[in-house]
Design a protein that fits this description.
Keywords: ATP-binding, Nucleotide-binding, Transferase. One of its GO terms (biological process) is tRNA processing. Pfam families: ATP_bind_3. This is tRNA 2-thiocytidine(32) synthetase TtcA. One of its GO terms (molecular function) is transferase activity. Strand 5 and strand 6 form a beta hairpin. This protein has a 6-stranded mixed β-sheet with strand order 3-2-1-4-6-5, sandwiched between helices. The longest helix is centred in the middle third of the chain and has 20 residues. The protein has a single domain, classed as HUPs (Rossmann fold), CATH 3.40.50. It is α/β, with parallel strands linked by helices. The protein binds adenosine-5'-triphosphate.
Length: 255
């Protein structure tokens, strides 16, 4: 049972890796390792795949310490058991976000600063790819958050090359819903730590997450259908952008 579930789970990760050409021979991949369920699962999945797929790649884990107390030996021991190098980056992100800035949107700043610290470390280590633990629920939540809070239809990509740094970001778990990640953590008895941030559970993302959970109760296939919609999306089914045109016409009419 455990083995079959592992096989099924890894097949989904592998599918995303192949579909988006995420990993090539000789890649040196840092997993953004927060120690939460998602990144622990990602690290373990990539570790298992590194031993079974023909493509050869190196792995390391980088933890960005934001300033909250955390049980780091749990993470250190886990990485040691896999023989994956583990790096800790000390930052003052918690202080900057909650004391210095006191912004209305602490999550956006925190995420931006964590990303910056992570990329700097990856460059310093001489690695070329960054793997993040986003799963299908993150994709769906981000889609709705963009639309609701910023009026944009957009979602992050499973594979992104960043011109400025030369790094590539990959998200190998985009085909897997959150509940499967939770099941995998249980089945494999993976160690993880809870997110210590005081904003955890009180964010805009949390609001959207609850709405999606309600929708899923009424429409159980929602997550799978959402994924299909992204994969079969046709630009012609949306409206053309007429904003600049209508501004020009407004000007003409006034003349
Ligand atoms: N402090 C951190 N150090 C290193 N990588 C991080 C850190 N925080 C987040 N990441 C990376 O960014 C991804 C998305 O971040 P997010 O804050 O959404 O985490 P999450 O959904 O709570 O995931 P997790 O369960 O791994 O904590 C994580 O899965 C992880 O790969």
């Amino acid at each position: 049972m455990t083995k079959n579930y592992r096989k099924w789970f890894l097949a989904k990760v592998k599918r995303a890796i192949y579909d988006f050409g995420m990993i090539e021979d000789g890649d040196r991949i840092v997993v953004g390792f927060s120690g939460g369920k998602d990144s622990v699962t990602l690290l373990y999945s990539l570790y298992l795949l590194s031993r079974s797929i023909p493509v050869k790649f190196d792995l390391a884990a980088v933890f960005i310490k934001t300033g909250w107390p955390m049980d780091l030996p749990v993470l250190e021991n886990f990485c040691r058991s896999l023989n994956v190098p583990f790096y800790i980056v000390e930052t003052e992100i918690a202080k900057i976000v909650f004391e210095d800035r006191q912004d209305d949107n602490p999550c956006a700043i925190c995420s931006h600063l964590r990303r910056g610290a992570l990329h700097s470390k990856v460059l310093e280590l001489g690695f070329n790819k960054v793997a993040l633990g986003h799963h299908l629920d993150d994709v769906i939540e981000t889609f709705f958050m963009s639309m609701i809070y910023t009026g944009q239809i957009r979602v992050f990509s499973p594979f992104t090359f960043l011109d400025r740094t030369g790094l590539t970001m990959i998200r190998p778990m985009v085909y897997l819903p959150a509940e499967e990640v939770v099941s995998f953590v249980k089945q494999e008895a993976l160690p993880f730590i809870e997110n210590p941030c005081p904003a955890n559970g009180f964010t805009n993302r949390e609001v959207v997450k609850k709405q999606i959970a309600d929708l899923v109760k009424r429409f159980p296939d929602l997550k799978a259908r959402f994924l299909t919609s992204l994969q079969t999306f046709d630009q012609r089914n949306l409206w053309p952008d007429v904003r600049s045109k209508s501004k020009k016409q407004d000007r003409k009419i006034r003349i």
